[in-house]
Amino acid sequence: MDNKEMQLREQICDVCHKMWQLGWVAANDGNVSAKLEDGTFLATPTGMSKSFITPEKLVHIDKTGKVLDALEGYRPSSEIKMHLRCYEEREDVGAVLHAHPPVATGFAVANIPLDDYSMIETVIALGSIPVTPYGTPSTQEVPDAIAPYLPEHDAMLLQNHGALTVGADVITAYYRMETLELFAKISLNARLLGGAQELSRENIDRLISMRQSYRVTGRHPGYKKYSEKK
After folding, report:
1. What CA–CA distance (Å, rounded) separates 159 from 129?
2. Contact 118/203 with Cβ under 8 angstroms?
3. pLDDT tens-place string over residues 95-125
4. Which residues of 172-211 are buried (b: 16+ CB within 10 A; e: fewer)?
5. Helix, strand, coil share (%) of the chain residues, nearest 5
6. Do 86 and 166 form a contact (C-beta atoms < 8 A)?
7. For the chain, what percent of residues have pLDDT higher than 90?
């Protein structure tokens, strides 16, 4: 194992521990994966709390999910199909996070997209955040449900399930999950106070155009309202 791989393993573990400390995962919930330079992947093992993850417990797999190297008895989560679909659909994705941050997941189980353009930072970083159609966990239904949204979105809510973020690296994907959950909290408070006051279309377009100057990477859907379709 070279230094780069070891650093990546430690980074994945650090993110797993943060997810657990923040209450985004409980028991064996959630999973994290990252792409190695040779096109294979590291993934968190199934059946283990993210608080207990250590570098040697990560599972090394290929693009089909086949285990290349792992401690005896360790295997990737059955949700790995969702992760692999993200890598398949987008060459720019280097890491995938799946978690159940409580407020964002509340919107997911209520089938309410986070598509209010009301918070400057979220408009710039993520834009609208859709709720993808329901899919039975561990089946091909989930990858198929998220695939249409991957070309435009780096964060999405999984109906009745949780949240998914992607990034060029593990830290970027983690930051996007942080942004998603914070926006969900703010959106919930705004709803309790009578509803969010959206920015004007002109200001929304200006903010989106500033992404490059802020060095914001990833995909952005532009101005898109999913609630208008209901």
Report:
1. 12
2. no
3. 999 999 999 999 999 999 999 999 999 999 9
4. bbbbbbebbbbbbebbbeeeeeeeeeebeeeebeebbeeb
5. 40, 15, 45
6. yes
7. 96
- Residue 29 CA to residue 163 CA, distance in Å, equals 12
Cα–Cα dist 53/229, whole Å: 41
Q: How far is CA 165 from CA 31, 57, 85, 189, 195, in A?
A: 11, 22, 13, 23, 26
For CA atoms 111, 22, 152, 133, the dihedral sign is negative
Angle at 173 between CA 107 and CA 135, to 5 degrees: 45
The H or E element spanning position 155 is strand 155-158
Contact partners, residue 192, CB within 8 Å, separation at least 6:
none
- Select from 36, 40, 206, 184 the least CA-distant residue to 99: 184
pLDDT value of position 137: 87
Q: Look up residue 134 and give its DSSP letter.
A: P
| Domain boundaries 3-222, CATH class | alpha beta
**Domain residue extents for the chain:** 3-222
